[in-house]
Every structure is written in C-alpha cells, then in structure tokens.
Amino acid sequence: MNKAVASTLVAVLTITAAAGCSGKPHRTVRASPVAAESSPPPEPLTPDVAAKAFHSFVNNDDVARASGDERLALWWTSEGQSQLTAAAFRRAVAAGDPVPRYHYADPVLYVPHLLLTGPQWFVVSARRTRADGKDPHTVYMGFLRTKSVQRWRLSALAVLDAKQKPPKIAVGSDGYAKALATFDNALLIPPRLVPSIQATLAEEGPQNVAAQVMRAGKYTTGYYAADQKAMKNKKAKKAGLHSSVVYAATSFPIFPLATADGGGMVLYALSRDTVITKTKGKDKSDHFPVPDDAAPFLTAKSVKSEIDISQTMQYVAVVPAKPKKQDGTVKAQIVGADGGTVKAAVPAK
C-alpha cells in the first residue's frame, strides 16, 4: 500500500478533517452531495414536492420503457443512473428484447431541510418489482435538482440485499429527515470517504488498513478475491489472457442521511474499469471472444489484443457513529448495490 493511501486511511481511523487521498486512481468524491448553484433559488423542497417528483419519474420512466423511448428515459435521469439507463436500452436492442419495466410500491420519502440557495435532493425507499410483479426488492433512490429550471431526476439507485434489514432513517416530528455533511466527523467514516474506502478494499484486499473501518463482504474483499482468481485462472493464462481491474470513487453526487442510531446511510457510486489483454498463447491466436457483458456495446464477436470495459456500480452503505475507542469491531457495511457495464471499447488501431 502506498504512502498516500496509508495517509488517507490513517486519517479516517483517527477521524480528523484532514483526510488524504490515494495516489492510486481512488478519486475522492466532491465535498458536498451536489454542486453549489447560483440564484434564482428553486422551489422549496417539501414532502409534497418530493412525492410529486417521485411519481412524475415513475410514470414517465414507465412510458419511456414501454415505448422504447430512450431519449425520454434519459431526460428523467442523471449521472450514474443515466449511464445505466442507456446501457439497459442498449442491451435490450442487442438481445431483441423489450426494455425492462418496473413497478414501485409503498414509497417512503426521506426529505431533508436544505438551503433554498443550494441544490435540492431527497431519497426514496420503495418496493420495486418487474412489471409482471416478479423479482421484488427494496430499492433506495436518490433524486436531484441542481437548478430551478431543471426537473427532478433520478441520480442514483441501489437495491437492498435480500434478507438485509433496512437502515432506520432518523425523521423528525416535522416529517423531515436529517441530511449529513459529507465531511461529518461524528461518523466512523466521513460520508465523502466511504467510496474511496470501498475502492481501496476492493483493489487491495483484506490486508489493507481500510479493513479496520469497513466490513469484509462481496462488495469489498469479495471483489478482490474474484479479481485475483480471474488473474490466476489457468485456462485464461493458457489462452494468453491477462486482466487488470481498477476501482475508483466518482465525481457523482452522494446522498448522506442520518440514521436513528446516530450513524448514517450513504448512497453513492463507484466506477470499475477492466482491461483484458491477450498475448499469443498456445492457441497461437491474437484474437479472443468478447465477454458477454461487453457484447451489446461492440459489433465484433471477437477482438484483437485488448478490450476495455467500464462499469458503473451504485451502493447504499450504513456507517456507524464514531466509537469513543476504536477497537476494529465497529465497522461500516455495504447493504445494497446495483449497476453493470456501461461501455466497452477496443483501442484505436
């Protein structure tokens, strides 16, 4: 682990405000959930406004998916969710299938008090199924409006893991949730550093000091183990295939809310970039098949020498309050995810 990464993680462990960044491509998200905007101020955010925005998205998204209107669907999304929505349409066209449609039930809106001069956002948890009622899951959705002339758009969505208990969001007697500052040092990990900590564990594994503040699991050390297994795969080596993976925090907005136990819930995104290269193995060929997840984004069924695959992954994590004495037992946990491949390309000749 390089010194810059160590500096960042030591800063997190001591919970100081001067946390550093990894010298690796673990880019730290910006210091506020959304970028500051100038006047005129948007319409004040209230639970009623949020409910209207949520239902407008649900209705228009369904119309767009039912009619195959990608442009309309993208008009109601932003950031990572735009990338994933475009990818969903691309996969459907490639497979000759209709775009998946969803039904949302029992929405619970978490609307924070926000400055009228700043950008507006809120989070919704809802029970989502396919249009046929199958595949039920609880999803967390982050909605964003950065200018008064813009409509509300879905920026991020993560699916709560099966059998995972939903985090209990703190809601006041007035019906409003509490937004957390992204640099909030009352938490074990400040919200803005949660993506970088996850990226570090996914790329460097359980031996990294980040394991002291975030739990091992399929979205952290599980990624590391899978990537290591792929790199050591004997069949791939025999074919001359080599892969490298980089995880990084994005510049997309994050959505941090206080939980009833004094901790926080954070909704955010990571990027996962994979490069697969080929040397002439025992098969004497310099071509190799396009991976299934990349196939909808390329016209060729095989590529020569190299393919670059980009994924956008979105997560919901719960972060406990900073304990009086850190002993390594109190840790943040990622409780849900969504995402997939959004781009695949081959180097220009």
UniProtKB/TrEMBL annotation:
List keywords of the entry alphabetically: Signal
Region Disordered, annotated ranges: 23-45
**Where does the DUF8094 domain start and stop, copy by copy?**
45-344
| PROSITE patterns in the cross-refs | PROKAR_LIPOPROTEIN
Q: What stretches pass through the bilayer?
A: none
Which residues constitute the signal peptide according to the record? 1-19
Q: What is this protein called?
A: DUF8094 domain-containing protein
The protein's organism comes out as: Actinoallomurus spadix
